[in-house]
Design a protein that fits this description.
Distance between the termini: 74 Å
Number of helices: 20
CATH superfamily of the domain at 4-233: Hypothetical protein af1432
Number of strands: 11
CATH topology of the domain at 4-233: Hypothetical protein af1432
Largest sheet: 4 strands, mixed
CATH architecture of the domain at 4-233: Orthogonal Bundle
Length: 427
């Protein structure tokens, strides 16, 4: 009888591991390493639960979903090209481990500490002290290095690397559907099954492409990406909370540099990470949302008024209010608005460096490449005659999807909002 492990997932339903299969057994083993289990304590959407209460899902569930999506893609591609067993193992392991180096609160901690999640992922995979490395090395001494190479598109791009990173990759497929489901936003749904069915491999280039029947599915997928960024990832409450987390961590970092951070101690992993010190794998495994939230709970009573105020606001959902400047496109007018807003906060007795911040999130749902860039990253569609055509040359929606989605907002502590609003009205 086959030994099988089954995980129920809200997006993919049944995710099964056949333990009599070497690759499946390896994947299940990786799930149970300390470094991967840490992802249970990293929320996929950071502070988004302050706007969408259901958005408490973890990078663990997302990473598991990316692996399952990669499985489905490879299953479809078998109809068009032979799938090398070792390359399949590399692809599935890479898809499972792709977020291993993510720090707390999505990308916010990364921006403050300077610790790159891509570099940390590679470090964990290649560090002999990590359980992940040891498990991979038991299978093949070269496997850790080969997984890291595939994640970085080496030695050359192929459909295996496209599955890990591209405009039609397993990562995007999963996070759009998962984030849409968990937020309840209903903006990010698309027909994954039909899109998967339309995928193919272009023989001459060995790259991922889409059959002609999949054009509508690609359009729906790209539109869902647009709507998720517009309504979830760039939601004003989400961006306000993330900005406050960034300010709190920056303030804590400044105090740490000046040796004035009352807690934690210098040797604590949070203190060391704030100072961008290199962490061992064991230390990094201790760095998660829980450790930062614990800091916030202690810092809310800090003698530093700025740090205490930011942490109380985050813990009790007293977030900065938003003044929307998106309609202003002239850079000089924006600069003038920022100056007047800062002046208004200062005159009212606030600190413009911490009671106010400007946020300009931007994303392009479908990125076409300039001639000087590599055209290999375009979404390519195989037409009925067998020719490969860029998606942008086929879909009338491509022009709109290639436009950058941008918001320009001031986020300001509530006591100063009316003054800032009045100050920028004249711009």
């Amino acid at each position: 009888m086959t030994t099988e492990k089954i995980i129920r997932d809200p997006v993919h339903d049944v995710i099964a591991f056949r333990l009599d299969d070497p690759t499946e057994s390896l994947l299940f083993g990786l799930l149970n390493t300390e470094e991967f289990q840490r992802l249970r304590r990293i929320r996929q959407l950071g502070m988004a639960s302050l706007a969408y209460p259901g958005a408490d899902h973890s990078r663990y569930s997302h990473s598991l979903g990316v692996m399952q999506t990669a499985r489905l893609i490879l299953g479809q591609l078998r109809h068009f090209t032979p799938i090398d067993p070792e390359s399949q193992t590399l692809c599935l392991v890479g898809s499972l481990l792709h977020d291993l180096g993510h720090g707390p609160f999505s990308h916010v901690f990364e921006r403050v500490s300077g610790l790159s999640h891509e570099q940390l992922t590679t470090q964990i995979i290649q560090d002999p002290s990590s359980q992940v490395h040891q498990l991979l090395r038991q299978r093949d001494a070269m496997l850790p290095a080969r997984v890291a190479d595939l994640m970085n598109g080496r030695p050359e791009r192929s459909f295996y690397s496209d599955i890990l990173c591209g405009q039609l990759d397993a990562d995007r497929f999963d996070y759009l559907l998962r984030d849409n489901l968990m937020t309840g936003s209903r903006y990010g749904g698309f027909d994954l099954q039909w899109l998967l069915h339309a995928l193919m491999v272009d023989g001459p280039t060995n790259r991922l492409a889409v059959r002609w029947k999949g054009v509508s599915a690609v359009e729906a997928y790209l539109q869902s990406r647009y709507h998720m960024y517009r309504n979830v990832y760039f939601h004003k409450v989400v961006r306000s909370a993330e900005g406050m987390v960034k300010l709190a961590l920056q303030r804590a970092k400044r105090l740490a540099v000046q040796d004035r951070l009352e807690w934690p101690a210098r040797e604590h992993v949070v203190h060391r990470a704030l100072l961008s010190q290199r962490l061992s794998v064991e230390e990094f495994t201790e760095l998660d949302d829980v450790s930062i939230l614990h800091c916030f709970k202690i810092w809310k009573d800090s003698s530093d008024v700025v740090l205490a105020g930011l942490c109380r606001g985050l813990l009790h959902r007293r977030l900065y209010k938003t003044v929307d400047l998106t309609a202003i496109e002239d850079p000089q007018r924006i600069e003038s608005a920022l100056e007047k807003a800062a002046d208004a906060v200062t005159k009212a007795g606030g600190d413009a460096a911490y009671d106010l911040f400007f946020d300009q999130p931007a994303d392009t749902p479908y990125e076409t490449r300039r001639p000087a860039d590599s055209a290999e990253d375009d979404i390519l569609v195989g037409d009925p005659a067998g020719r490969l055509i860029p998606f942008g040359a086929i879909s009338p929606l491509s022009a709109a999807l290639n436009r950058q989605l941008t918001f320009r907002r001031l986020h300001v502590a509530e006591p100063f909002r009316d003054g800032v609003l009045q100050a920028v009205r004249s711009v």
